[in-house]
Amino acid sequence: MNLEILRELADRCVAMAARVSVPIDDGRSFSLSISAGATLARPEEDPLELIRRVDELMYQSKERGRNRASIQ
Question: Does position 25 have pLDDT exceeding 90, yes or no?
Answer without folding.
Answer: no
